[in-house]
Amino acid sequence: MFRSALAQSRRAAARSARFASTSAKQQTLKERLAELIPVELENVKAARAAHGKKSFGPVVVDQLYGGMRGLPALIWEGSVLDAEEGIRFRGKTIPECQELLPKAPGGQEPLPEALFWLLLTGEVPTQEQVTALSKDWAARAAIPEFVQEIIDRCPPTLHPMSQFSLAVTALNHDSAFAKAYQEGVSKKEYWGPTFEDSMDLIAKLPNIAGRIYRNVYGQGKLPAINADKDYSWNLANLLGFGESPEFVELMRLYITIHSDHEGGNVSAHTGKLVGSALSDPFLAFGASLNGLAGPLHGLANQEVLLWLRKMQSKIGENASDEAVKEYVWSTLKGGQVVPGYGHAVLRKTDPRYMAQREFALKHLPEDPLFKLVGQVYNIVPSILLEAGKAKNPWPNVDAHSGVLLTHYGLTQMQFYTVLFGVSRAFGVAAQLIWDRALGAPLERPKSYSTAAINKMFKDKTA
Ligand SMILES: CC(=O)SCCNC(=O)CCNC(=O)[C@H](O)C(C)(C)COP(=O)(O)OP(=O)(O)OC[C@H]1O[C@@H](n2cnc3c(N)ncnc32)[C@H](O)[C@@H]1OP(=O)(O)O
Ligand SMILES: O=C([O-])CC(=O)C(=O)O
């Protein structure tokens, strides 16, 4: 039975690949997805028939107390994280994506539109398909007036991430999925309105982010979306940096590399969990943002800049290695973490850190803050190793993003995680669409109390 399911799914995949090669240029993302879904349903059926009863090994009690590290628990299609090598988007490393994905005319960094296509389909889109996606998102970019008002009424002292989450949650007012559900849509059709909501969500984020930025930091009126430009150009322009081609390139790289980091990280898992209750993509991603706003997760990029600035005010600019070492030790001795270092899964330098370092070496090698980030990179890992607690002493993505934004004049560090959030929507949305297409069930793992654990293992030796 398994063999025939597998053969059937291979035949379907071959048919769809043939079709894709002849009609790829004409196909929209939704059309391509509609072809891939039946193929993937067969793939999943075959994988479950072959492996459904196989074990990943024992679960130990420490994993329940230890934040579920290493516990295999989720299906996530867009990316898989290797502890040593870092992230691969649909099997492709960051340098491979930089090489293979379509770029803007004259640009060198991949277009996030292409990355979204890759996350959803596992395929590299054509330039025409990417351009069509840019146009589609531009056409969907306007946000309802009442959402504009919600943002405008927020006090500038409310953290930009809280404003962001409020606005995204409010988009649920016009959710195609929520409406279709109320009208009794069949389970088999869930993915269609989820796709529409996801496209709307991604498309509207630049206007939301731009409005928050301009309100909080008094940067004047928001310009209109330019339908002839790509997503990152529009995002940069809404923030006031459309005239800087290097900043636009930075946005393309930034949105691409922050998009997805497999399923277990706080923001991705939260989105998937909330979506599993059939909350629409706006509600699900609003929840993701609340998780991303924590200092151990996405807020770390803000914390890194704050920490570096505090360091500079304490020990001065161009400080010696000895002074930096002393500052790092004082952070640890104060019972605080060194922001931007360590990771729950990675055990080597994050390739997203390296991609940003390479961008800096190319575009801003003499920037004093970049030099400090490099100096810290040479110093912190050995101190964390000596301190002996952190399992990974190496830098993560957040150790490098702030210095790039600061270089181009986006110095308001409380805003940085909003940009991370714009990017993370790509990964969360792609998985929400697949979850609804594949009929993913309500998430509901088992929990235990300490008393229950003690009772369970009473009188047992192992
Ligand atoms: C996009 C992202 O989310 S990337 C991560 C962004 N977050 C940061 O950069 C914050 C700084 N880093 C950290 O706090 C951690 O490394 C985390 C949260 C990222 C991972 O946490 P864990 O998986 O629990 O890390 P790990 O198993 O290595 O922790 C063991 C101990 O080392 C400590 N440790 C880990 N990283 C650091 C660090 N950068 N500085 C100081 N101590 C650290 C932990 O706090 C923990 O201490 P405890 O035993 O007293 O509780
Ligand atoms: O994977 C994680 O736990 C955190 C992270 O780097 C991300 O979500 O980008």
TrEMBL record:
Name the residues annotated as catalytic in the UniProt entry: 297, 343, 398
Q: What NCBIfam families would the database entry show?
A: cit_synth_euk (TIGR01793), PRK09569.1 (NF007128)
* Assigned keywords, A-Z: Transferase
The entry assigns this protein to a family as follows:
Belongs to the citrate synthase family.
Under the GO molecular function aspect, what terms does this record hold? Answer: acyltransferase activity, acyl groups converted into alkyl on transfer
InterPro entries given in the database record: Citrate_synth-like_lrg_a-sub (IPR016142), Citrate_synth-like_sm_a-sub (IPR016143), Citrate_synthase (IPR002020), Citrate_synthase_AS (IPR019810), Citrate_synthase_euk (IPR010109), Citrate_synthase_sf (IPR036969)
Which Gene3D superfamilies does this chain map to?
A: Citrate Synthase, domain 1, Cytochrome P450-Terp, domain 2
Q: Which organism is it from?
A: Ceriporiopsis subvermispora (strain B) (White-rot fungus)
A GO CC annotation given for this chain: mitochondrial matrix
Q: What is this protein called?
A: Citrate synthase
* Superkingdom as given in the UniProt entry: Eukaryota
- GO terms for biological process? carbohydrate metabolic process; citrate metabolic process; tricarboxylic acid cycle
The UniProt entry, under CDD domains, shows: ScCit1-2_like (cd06105)
Which SUPFAM superfamilies does the UniProt record give? Citrate synthase
Give one Pfam family: Citrate_synt
